[in-house]
UniProtKB/TrEMBL annotation:
Transmembrane segments: none
Any single GO BP term: phosphatidylinositol phosphate biosynthetic process
Catalytic activity: a myo-inositol phosphate + H2O = myo-inositol + phosphate
Name of protein: Inositol-1-monophosphatase
Required cofactor(s): Mg(2+)
Pfam families cross-referenced by the UniProt entry: Inositol_P
Residues that bind Mg(2+) 2: 93
Metabolic or biological pathway: Polyol metabolism; myo-inositol biosynthesis; myo-inositol from D-glucose 6-phosphate: step 2/2
Binding site for Mg(2+) 1: 72, 95-96, 222
UniProt-listed InterPro entries: IMPase, Inositol_monoP_metal-BS, Inositol_monoPase_Li-sen, Inositol_monophosphatase-like, Inositol_monophosphatase_CS
Keywords for the protein's UniProt record, in alphabetical order: Hydrolase, Magnesium, Metal-binding
Keyword NADP: no
Superkingdom of source: Eukaryota
Source species of the chain: Dufourea novaeangliae
Length: 282
């Protein structure tokens, strides 16, 4: 269906496009933004998210008219999540870390992944503010600004820097679960970090800057590129329950190695059990 030469061309074309689109973020981050909300007051979108996605999809579709797309803002506007098929499909988050972008906090990025036959083949995550370009091709390793990166080999939680998305505690229905897991992480790890961009956090695990990352409540465009980048850097991504990861329904436990990932799954299950016990007592 699609040859290695075709994938090479796809990669080169979209890499240039990603860098070009990053200029929109870089030029706009300090300026005023027109802000709207989607799922809630915490789920922000700006005119630049829409402008970026339109630019990316239109440019890719012109070059590859038979390819499909799953894009955050398109899904939001149609309120319909397309099925991931065997067709070449670009999974796009035009600005991951929109809240960071709104506040001029420099952890924000463009995230683009390509799936072929439901297999991630290309991952590109670009933070144009800090000039960090993370890239991966299936079977060819992962890089930061052209230099190979490798995930951490630390296997113990107590020696780890762990990442999670604490901001989801704003959602009342999952607040107790999120805070329970955060308390468990704080109690055992060297430290915890919350970065506000799933794509960048996955890349930081890929480069060994953090040992592991956990979050539920994501969508395919948040993780597609970053998941490939971690795997190509020698790390692992599994489901929060310890099973196989599903990019279209992503519950993420990402770690530098499988042993640490399983330890994190156990910690999460223990935290959830403690949270449930507390609820039953009240």
């Amino acid at each position: 269906m699609i040859s290695n030469e075709d994938l090479d061309y796809c990669y080169d074309f979209v890499l240039k496009l990603t860098i070009e689109s990053g200029k929109i973020i870089r030029d706009a981050i300090q300026g005023s933004k027109k802000i709207e909300t989607k799922a809630g007051d915490w789920d922000l979108v700006t005119q630049y998210d829409k402008k970026m996605e339109e630019f990316l999809i239109n440019s890719i579709a012109k070059e590859f008219p038979k390819h499909k797309f799953i894009g955050e803002e398109t899904v939001s506007s149609t309120n319909s999540l397309p099925e991931l098929t065997d067709e070449p499909t670009w999974i796009i988050d035009p600005i991951d870390g929109t809240t960071n972008f709104v506040h001029s906090f420099p952890f924000t990025c463009v995230s683009i992944g390509l799936s072929v036959k439901k297999e991630l083949e290309i991952g590109i995550v670009y933070n144009p503010i800090l000039e960090q370009l993370f890239t991966a091709r299936r079977g060819r390793g992962a890089s930061l600004n052209g230099k190979p990166i490798h995930a951490s080999k630390v296997e113990k939680l107590e020696h780890s820097l762990l990442c999670l998305e604490a901001s989801y505690a704003t959602i009342e229905s999952i607040r107790d679960t999120v805070l329970g897991r955060m308390e468990a992480f704080v109690s055992v790890a060297h430290g915890i970090r919350t970065m506000g961009s799933a794509a960048l956090t996955l890349c930081y695990v890929a480069m060994g800057a953090a040992e592991a990352y956990h979050t539920d409540n994501l969508m395919a465009w948040d993780v597609a590129a970053g998941v490939l980048i971690i795997r190509e850097a020698g790390g692992v991504v599994i489901d929060t329950n310890g099973g196989e990861f599903n990019v279209m329904s992503p519950k993420v436990v990402a770690a530098g190695n499988h042993k640490l990932a399983i330890e994190l799954v156990k910690l999460i299950k223990k935290a959830d059990f403690t949270t449930l016990q507390k609820k039953l007592l009240h």
